[in-house]
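Quick one, probably user error.
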């Protein structure tokens, strides 16, 4: 594992790189609003991605690096994320396809920035479809805006709701709640299988 400090317009981000033996792509993963990159589902997804031959960059947003728990505004999160993605593309992963992803708030960032960042696919872990006490404030538009292959891995008891499958969007339901901690093996398998399948058409010829 390699740790990197990356400057963004909103402060310094921290990146943990986990290399696959023969990396054919890179998966960028963001954390939840109040959590870190050591969340169980992010650890499980990292394991699945590297098994599929995909490098992983776990990205800690500047507000968390600075020691704050309250998340930054969405525009700041998106700007910082895109800055890190560009830096990684220029300095570490030249010409490799990038998959954007994350858990909860990080999944929302990945969806909102996928088009501008040129993501080849998007991975959402525990996407917070709607606040439990305000179901009318749903975020379905963030999912439907993604035009590349999209996987949502969701707990069947998640109080933030269950996104439905749709064109470009697959949904895998696992036992558990919003933490996705109940079935880490299921998360690993879902991510490994999906990445291997959706990135196959992008593989460079020998």
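Nope, works fine. Designed sequence:
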């Amino acid at each position: 594992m390699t740790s990197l400090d990356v400057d963004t317009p909103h402060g310094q981000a921290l990146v943990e790189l986990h290399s696959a033996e023969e990396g054919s792509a890179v998966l960028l993963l963001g954390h939840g609003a109040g959590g870190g990159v050591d969340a169980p589902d992010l650890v499980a997804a990292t394991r699945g991605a590297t098994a599929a031959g995909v490098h992983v960059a776990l990205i800690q947003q500047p507000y968390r690096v600075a020691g704050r728990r309250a998340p930054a505004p969405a525009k700041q999160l998106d700007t910082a994320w895109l800055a890190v993605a560009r830096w990684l593309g220029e300095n570490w992963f030249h010409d490799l396809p990038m998959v954007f992803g994350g858990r909860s708030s990080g999944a929302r960032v990945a969806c909102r920035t996928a088009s501008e960042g040129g993501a080849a696919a998007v991975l959402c872990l525990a996407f917070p479809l709607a606040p439990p006490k305000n179901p009318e404030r749903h975020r379905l538009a963030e999912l439907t805006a993604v035009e590349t292959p999209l996987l949502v891995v969701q707990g069947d008891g998640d109080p933030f709701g269950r996104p439905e499958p749709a064109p470009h969007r697959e949904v895998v339901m696992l036992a558990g709640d919003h933490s996705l901690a109940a079935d880490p093996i299921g998360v690993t398998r879902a991510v490994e299988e999906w990445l291997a399948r959706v990135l196959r058409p992008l593989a460079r010829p020998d």
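The mean pLDDT is 94.
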